[in-house]
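seq:
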Amino acid sequence: MSPSPAGTSSTTRPMATARGRWGRWATLALASLALLPGTAPAPAAAQAPPAAAPAPAAGAAPVVLVTGSNRGIGLEFVRQYAQKGWTVIATARDPANAPELQALAARHRNVSLETLDVADSAQVAALAAKYRGRPVDVLLHNAGWLGERDKQSLENLDYATFEEVLRVNTFAPLEISRAFMENVLASSQKKIVVITSGLSSQANTRRGGGLYFYRISKAGVNMAMRTLAAETRDKGLKVGILAPGMVETRLLRASGYPAAGIPPQQSVAGVIRNIENLTQDAEIVLWDGSKVPW
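struct:
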């Protein structure tokens, strides 16, 4: 099972020097949780609540927003959804320097590119404001970060790396889900999906150790999405926690996995099939449809 949303993470991601200590991260996480549907405080009388997104027009193409779409399976999600005729909002930290993504957008008029560093709350808010009032059928959290292997071992536990891996892999999907919640609820399909990893499984951890921060972050986002599913089930939301498997990408090589992975095309086709068949169970499902133990 995949050590990451293959190809979406970077082992050379610049460390954010202004992230702050754990207290700041925890405060952000609690603030985000407090603002999820059903838990937000009543707005002040002088503040009008954000307008709900209008219902999708009859016959309109479904919309998917993909994070981390510049390479690997993120790029493949954009390709396959574009070929299916979906309207695709493809986000990346630096789409101008993503030639394969640029070429894909040039070939498909139904693909639009947006700049988004998922660890930047200001960028998340700005993108949500830009798309306010527009239904999004599938919000696909594909972006993630493996983190440097040598900074998450018993020999070297680097706190700054730990904080950043959690920020990208655990907090960002929750924050983005909150920011686009009205868009998703206004759509026909009402789906939020996170790309997780078999390394998040406590049962599978018996097979080996290492990659402490990455494993913790993926187990954390599984719980975040499971909690989100429970909190929004009565609104019709469907939450997917989907694992792509061991996919042959640059990130798989960086993880230290010794064997060959499956092609991105095969993995993504399976994950999209699972998205199409998504229920409100919020179980961890592998690309081939099998369940991953918690």
